[in-house]
Amino acid sequence: MSHDNISDDKLPDAHAASEGHGLPAVADDPFADPGLPAHEPRRTDIDERAAQRAERQVSLLFVTSMLATVGFIASYVAIKPDKLVFIFPLGHVSALNFALGMTLAVALFCIGAGAVHWARTLMSDVEMPAERHPIEADDEVRADVIQQFKTGAAESGFGRRKMIRNTMIGSMAMVPLAGVVLLRDLGPLPEKKLDHTGWIEATPTAPIRLVNMNTDEPMKAEDLAIGSLTFAKPGPSASRPNGLQDSDEDFQQAIAKDALMLVRIQPQDLKDEKSSALGFEGVLAYSKICTHVGCPISLYEQQTHHALCPCHQSTFDLSDGARVIFGPAGHPLPQLKITTDTEGYLVATQDFTVPVGPSFWERSA
Amino acid sequence: MSSSPSTTPPATPASTRAKPANKGEAAADYLDGRLGIYSLAKANLRKIFPDHWSFMLGEICLYTFVIIILTGVYLTLFFKPSMGEVVYNGSYAPLDGIRMSEAYASTINISFEVRGGLLIRQIHHWAAIVFVAAMFVHMMRVFFTGAFRKPREINWVFGFLLLCLGFFDGFMGYSLPDDLLSGTGIRFMEGAVLAVPLVGTYIQMFLFGGEFPGTDIIPRFFTIHVLLIPGVMLGLLVAHLILVFYHKHTQWGGPGKTEKNVVGMPLMPVYMAKAGGFFFLVFGIIAAMSAIASVNPVWAYGPYRPDQVSTDAQPDWYMGFAEGLIRVMPGWEVRAWGHTLNLGVFIPLMLFPLVLALIAAYPFIEGWIIGDKREHHILDRPRNVPVRTGLGAAWITLYVVLLIGGGNDLIATHFHLSLNDITYFVRVGSFVLPIAVFYITKRWCLGLQRRDKEKVLHGRETGVIKRLPHGEFIEVHAQLPQATLHSLTSHEQPQPLELPSEVDENGVARKVGLLTKTRAKLSEGYFGEGGQIPKPTVEEHQEITSGHGHH
Amino acid sequence: MKKLSARRRHPLAALVVLLFALAITGGLYAAFAPAEKAQADSSAQSLAIDEGKRLFAVGCSSCHGLNGEGSADGPSLVGVGSAAVDFQVGTGRMPAQQPGAQIPAKRNIYSQSDIDQMAAFVASLGPGPVTPTSEQYTSTETDAISKGGDLFRTNCAQCHNFAGAGGALTQGKYAPSLEGVSAKHIYEAMQTGPQSMPVFPEGTMPEKQKQEIVAFVRYQANEAPNPGGLTLGSLGPVTEGLFGWIFGLGVLIAVAIWVAAHTTKAKKS
Fold this sequence. Notes:
The complex is a heterotrimer of chains A (about 375), B (about 550) and C (about 270).
Chain A lengths: L42 H4 L1 H31 L5 E4 L3 E4 H27 L6 E4 L7 H18 L5 H13 L1 H7 L25 E5 L16 E6 L16 H8 L1 E5 L8 H6 L4 E5 L11 E3 L4 E3 L6 E3 L5 E4 L8 E2 L1 E3 L5 E3 L17
Antiparallel strand pairs in A: 1-2, 4-5, 4-14, 5-6, 6-7, 7-12, 8-9, 9-10, 10-11, 13-14
Chain B lengths: L22 H13 L1 H8 L3 E2 L7 H20 L8 E3 L11 E3 H11 L4 H28 L8 H23 L4 H15 L5 H9 L8 H31 L13 E6 H26 L5 H4 L18 H9 L5 E3 L2 E3 L1 H28 L15 H21 L1 H7 L4 H40 L1 E8 L5 E6 L3 H8 L24 H14 L10 H9 L5
Antiparallel strand pairs in B: 1-4, 2-3, 5-6, 7-8
Helix pairs in contact in B: 3-5, 3-10, 4-5, 5-6, 5-10, 6-9, 6-13, 12-13, 12-14, 13-14, 14-16
Chain C lengths: L1 H5 L6 H20 L16 H11 L1 H4 L16 H10 L21 H14 L8 H4 L6 H12 L1 H4 L6 E2 L5 E2 L7 H10 L14 H17 L13 H24 L9
Antiparallel strand pairs in C: 1-2
Helix pairs in contact in C: 3-6, 5-6, 5-10, 8-11, 10-11
């Protein structure tokens, strides 16, 4: 904030703004401050009948408020919470909510309107000036305070007794560490938790079936028509004999990583061979979790094979290995390798080869 | 400080104070003896407050905050901040038999089982939306009128912190019911945290107590939402108000108003009635809003499940600009040495505080450029400081463009545009439009200054047309009253800083630092030829008024 | 530039600027409004096939070919089934009027018997989804709405919004609002996957679940009360924010102006 290098006469004049005030207006200065305009009376100041009318209006507002409060209590007692009523243009609304809200609104608004009307019509509206005093203390006070502080500091010996000072600073700096340490048990360490999903249990010898989210049944490729969209979760495995069920205690955590989006595209429309090979006869199983920040992406346009995320509009081309074609996502949706088991049901034989969901620092793929 | 005279002999048990005239005075005397209320009231009971509607924006913030606290306390009596699972069997049939968290189920019960619960929920949420909006408008009022200048810079910072905390507490509150929309918001937050380099996964695990979503996040948010942030806000709010009282309110310039006074009406009775009444008016209007319009209909969203989502997944409006940043950012991701840097998320995450910091730091930047160390209590008319007004308008433009980005899907459907084109528009517009708006606003302000000058020098157009003897038609201009002339000319016009001469008085070359040069350049931009129109002088005015018929 | 500058105070200057602004806005809109051509799907089954063929020749063949074999302007209708015809023509999407990002629903110009005849003709071209009967799309179960809600949130809400208000897709395409859509048409849309919408075939979403979804959509988008008051379009926080700013803060500021204004002086009245 220093302005040492600036010539002082160019700084705004410290008194420019207060010029004119208190001084008699210079006769030939048309811009001089004429001072506060004289007070002009209101109707209610000079006409007692108008004042009485205003008084009645204020009281009427207060009485209306009282009646509205009574109405509020009556509505609370009388109206059932599930009663619906048609009110134009609101539609079929809860009668209780509307009645309570409107009576409360009137009760409160009328108190406010009464008080303001009272102030505006009956209380004095003479504008008056009050003096301001500078916030800054004058030099004498300033010097006195600084002296007092210096005396206190000298008496404490804080500057002189360096051992006390240093050990005190050291102890104060260390004691918050106790609080930091206490935060350790807020959660586990990340380790490799984000690298794998529930599909990790799938192996070529013990594959996991893809179970339809809607029907809770395994699916065959022929169930999925061209242009269809299906959502799937892991079926029975060693650790979950019934497959993933929404009654499982850790269902939310599991589905946040395991959810699949299955599409079927004409094999000749597939542009990416690697992706095509991970699928089965044009059935492709992609992670439903967006690689941007993890919304369940599933706005699938079956004609263009584009999947759009409803949260931030990252767009993936599912016919081209879920390449990002628009939006803020940084990498394709992970694809789960699928095949069929001996009964012809779609199964996974391995986990996703890359972590699903949003990127993180330790993500190496 | 003591209100009783110290000359009283210590042995006398009776007070020398006059006997109270009535019970009220007696009660006041009792309190004064213990709290010293008389000295406090002496300075404040007839404290003068200036009257202007824009000075009441801060009151809207204060009152909505009080409403939020009152209704929030009521909601805590019924809300269960738990992610334990229950199967819903309440009165809302479309959710019958659906598995959900206790947090969501209790929110549904507040809405449908508790009488008046829906109203209180809606008042709480509407008041929160209006609270942040009012803080925003209040801040802009302070900005455009220069009310942040000395001695009020620190109070500006307090206000700014209140705005930021309001953002975050609002976001936490939005997350608590554990409905499909709020869960999507928490999921976004998880992704954003994961994008932080080095420590992202650790923060995520510690915040959620394990993998997303876990069962800890809602109880933790609850404590932060109802205790931690409101507590800090309350402290800041009290400090903010104490400073408003201590500094006395700013006022608009005009006849009789100076930097050394404040003109208005006294706290007791006018402002007690007006400000007190305004609280009830604000509460009444919010209650009416909650009676007629639904806000956050959690029952319609359904319970949160990480594999379900609804389109139109947006945060409340005040987080909308952050949503815009996130939506329009290209998907940049750097992968090297076995690590991933998710710039597509991390850059917006860093820009979010930066956009806010720009406006927060402005008073200090302006103070440094102008080098003005005086107190200011008379407000600037926005037109008289074109550069500041232009910068403020540019900042609002950036904010609004990003809000458009945050609502791009709804704009696409409602104006039949392509989502992708809106995103491209916002990518370019957030750079180009603020600059364009800055120049337009600045020119506009200069135009208004010219008009003021014209009015001062030539008077106001009366609409009366006169025909002169030689056939020419003229419009009669009427001289403005002195009060108006004063109002239009009383503002200061600072001159730009000048660099010190290359050599000092002894002829020795002087070194001028880069900082000083920059500062002089900026000052030239603010107050140089392009920055303001010289206001009319008395001489100019006299020349024109004396030379009648000249016009 | 000087010349322009000199005229900016002309009385008509504001009008000229306004016209310019309107022209630019309009031009930009025209430039940016999505104009990509959409493809429409359709289908068939049989009864009065000949009558259907006659109607088809008049209304549909210019794009889809005389025998539904398709052309550059319209896809082949072989194998789309009668349900697709019933949906596309019944909702007024077909015959399409003008190219655009997506063919919108409009007033249907055919009678139901005309539609049935065309559907019969198209169905005769190859097997495909059959127009459902009312037993197929009407659920009698009491818990259909809550079950349908869960299915809707898994399969449909991502595009059509939690309340069926519709939403944006890429490049100007959109998922339409489900308000006022008949139960039959909702069922047919899931069966046939019109335009961008994916198909939900019997194999992955059995009839009973489609019934439940239909029950939920009919309830949520048409019959559901709005206990809290105005739904503001059921569009989430964006419209709530607009309402809070415009109505909430707007009224509060209007009241603040009243509170702070000077009371009318006696001599002026």
